[in-house]
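User: Watch each token:
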Amino acid sequence: MTLDVSDVTVAPPAMKVTQKEMADARVPRIYRDYCAHLWIPLEKCRRENLFAPWKCGDERHGYEECQYREYVRRMKIAELKRREQDDA
């Protein structure tokens, strides 16, 4: 399987929340990635609804979609690097 790397950008996406905002929201370090701006409202919704699995669906979907897109971006970068090594 080959990935279409024509649209890949090697530069990481811009962080939408600052380290201070993440610290104030008590975001665990493992979640301090490019999707942290979606994790904060998701976690707030979960706490308000006592972690009911049927609640916060829109927030969860947005966060999971962001995580998936970041995964695909990293895989495209890895594929691009692999192709560059094969060409060299």
User: Anything to note?
Assistant: Residues 24 and 79 are 37 Å apart (CA to CA).
